[in-house]
Design goal:
By secondary structure, the protein is α+β, with helices and mostly antiparallel strands. It has one domain. It is about 30% helix and about 10% strand. The protein has seven helices and seven strands, in the order αββββααααβααββ. The strands form three sheets. It has a three-stranded antiparallel β-sheet, with no helix packed on it. A two-stranded antiparallel sheet has the order 2-3. α5 packs parallel to α7. The radius of gyration is 18 Å and the shape is globular.
Length: about 260
């Protein structure tokens, strides 16, 4: 029985790899094509969907770096540290940069861009002709191990993810791409920084509340920790709990982002 199960897993991995290779040509430079899949939320209310179908999309291979974000603020002065409006970013926005257009020793060019609000990340993605990934898209890709599309079947992967989520972030972040790529070829979904996503938790803020506020002040990043369906999924609990604590103008020293694009 065990050998048959291993054969089925191997065949599934081969099939998924073939589908990814077939889609690879569709992904823009610097991005990875992700085939359609199903995301099963770890936290949901009884009325929420148990499964969310995710359509094909592309996602950045690496998080956006300081150097890349510097290009953006050069092109758009309103997003420079001295000019951004408080409603779009709190007072700590880009605090580790040496100046409006100078990174300095505290912000390496190839380190992930952090101290960036959701509004700024969304604006950057739009400037690139992209968007932020949804929670379902991000979690679908981040749920893969290094050798299988389903990381739940990889105990070592789960152990590493849980260890990182329970460790404090270093003062200076490592360069993007330093970690091992996952099954899809995407780097740094775990082990480097938390990441903004496009949609905000309907369990924490109602759809009507969102619609009442054109500036989306009350929106939260990602999903919340209400309605946990698998209390053993420690890393997912931390991710969703962290996201539910954020507002769109907040900035955090280990919160970055990457972009996505519909295929």
């Amino acid at each position: 029985m065990a050998s048959r199960r291993l054969i089925r897993l191997a065949l599934a991995a081969v099939g998924a790899a073939s589908e990814i290779l077939a889609m690879a040509a569709e992904a823009p430079p610097g991005m990875v094509a992700i085939p359609p899949g199903v995301y099963r939320p770890a936290f949901r209310a009884d009325s929420d969907l148990k499964e969310i179908v995710v359509q094909p999309f592309a996602i950045d291979r690496y998080p956006v770096t300081n150097a890349e974000f510097l290009e953006f603020v050069r092109a758009h002065p309103r997003w420079r540290r001295s000019q951004v409006k408080p409603i779009f970013a709190d007072s700590q926005y880009l605090k580790h940069w040496a100046g409006d257009l100078e990174l300095g020793p505290g912000a390496a060019t190839n380190a992930p861009a952090t101290w960036v609000s959701w509004f700024a990340a969304k604006a950057y993605a739009g400037w690139k002709g992209k968007r932020l990934p949804s929670t379902a898209e991000w979690e679908l890709v981040a749920g893969s191990g290094t050798t299988l599309p389903d990381g739940e079947k990889d105990p070592e992967f789960l152990k590493q993810v849980a260890a990182w989520h329970s460790s404090p972030a270093p003062e200076r972040l490592s360069p993007v791409g330093a970690g091992k790529a996952n099954f899809y070829g995407v780097h740094d979904l775990h082990g480097l920084v938390w990441e903004w996503v496009s949609d905000f938790n309907a369990s924490m803020v109602t759809g009507d509340a969102r619609g009442d506020n054109g500036l989306e002040r009350r929106l939260f990043c990602g999903g919340g920790a209400q309605g946990a369906k698998d209390v053993s999924d420690y890393a997912a609990y931390l991710r969703f709990g962290f996201r539910s604590s954020l507002e769109a103008r907040y900035v955090v020293h280990n919160l970055g982002f990457r972009c996505a694009k519909t295929l």
